[in-house]
Automatic annotation (TrEMBL):
GO molecular function per UniProt: acyltransferase activity, transferring groups other than amino-acyl groups
Record flagged with keyword Acyltransferase: yes
Database matches in PROSITE patterns: GNAT
Keyword vocabulary terms for this entry: Acyltransferase, Transferase
Domain N-acetyltransferase per the UniProt entry, residue ranges: 72-246
Record's protein name: Acyl-CoA N-acyltransferase
């Protein structure tokens, strides 16, 4: 079978999954699809204050059932992307690469010396939903218009969400992983041309990651009444943008 449509993703020799390897010095880290077996590790990460303090979406406390539901949901998207690529390979493997609506890989894994793989984080790329906008009607209008655009439309506004195991913070891993996914997949294969991200105003590490990736600070949105699932009150969100050179 031709693997042209997978390019530049590789095929995992043990699992048959698609994957990318980070460049040196992080070449012991690969990005693969999610696995249901990640659930217990995700539960332990999501109940660690080094993560839940900074995250708005996940329930708190985070239970095994939350991880199973989340993995089932995100696997539906990554499995569909893989099926789309398999079908394209069967139909016209040597044709120009097809546009794919999402990335088929997103889970960071550290490959240990004994060959075992430790799940260490996740990167989401979704169409933007303007979580800082408190005017519900304006938010819904923007979301609807963004969701209605055809796959590959350069005017789609995307958003990134990410987290890394606390044991691995501060080594440049997330910056390298997002850069790899953008350069090798999102830009060439999904037509991503603009990304808007939100970081809590005190999340200096997350903002720094995006700045290192070339995102530009636009504004701070004060959010006086926003309380996270963990009970923490946040003060606001910093909005940053990345736009492809036209
Ligand atoms: C945000 C997160 C993904 C970053 O991953 P990471 O691999 O540690 O990031 P990197 O090592 O690539 O870069 C972090 C940068 O922030 C800097 N940084 C981190 N905390 C900082 C702080 N309190 N003050 C100043 N700089 C800080 C680091 O020095 C580094 O910058 P440098 O390379 O210029 O020195 C990770 O810390 C995490 O999972 N945090 C909890 C979840 C989260 O915040 N997710 C993002 C939600 S928007």
């Amino acid at each position: 079978m031709s693997t042209t449509q997978f390019d530049p993703l590789q095929i995992h020799p043990k699992t048959g999954e698609l994957f990318l390897r980070l460049p040196s010095p992080h070449d012991n880290i690969i990005i693969t699809p999610p696995r249901m077996s990640d659930a217990p590790t995700i539960v332990s990460y999501m109940n660690d204050p080094a993560l839940y303090y900074w995250l708005e979406g996940p329930p708190f406390p985070y239970l095994p059932q939350h991880a199973e539901e989340w993995l089932t949901k995100i696997k539906t998207d990554t499995d569909a992307a893989r099926e789309r690529l398999d079908r394209a390979n069967e139909e016209h493997g040597d044709a120009p690469p097809v546009v794919v609506p999402c990335w088929p890989i997103r889970s960071l894994r550290e490959v240990r010396e004994d060959g075992s793989e430790l799940f260490i984080g996740d990167i989401t790329l979704v169409r933007e939903r303007w979580p800082d906008l408190e005017d519900k009607e304006a938010k819904a209008t923007l979301e609807r218009a963004n969701a209605a655009k055809e796959d590959g439309d350069p005017s789609i506004v995307w958003c990134i969400g990410d987290y890394l195991a606390p044991s691995h913070h501060g080594k440049g891993i997330m910056t390298a992983a997002i850069r790899t996914l953008l350069d090798k997949w999102a830009i060439p294969r999904m037509g991503v041309r603009q990304i808007r991200v939100e970081t809590f105003t005190d999340n200096i590490g997350s903002r720094r990651v995006f700045e290192k990736l070339g995102f530009v600070f636009e504004k701070t949105v004060p959010l006086e009444r926003r309380v996270l699932n963990s009970g923490r009150r946040i003060e606001g969100m910093d909005i940053l943008w990345w736009k492809a050179d036209s």
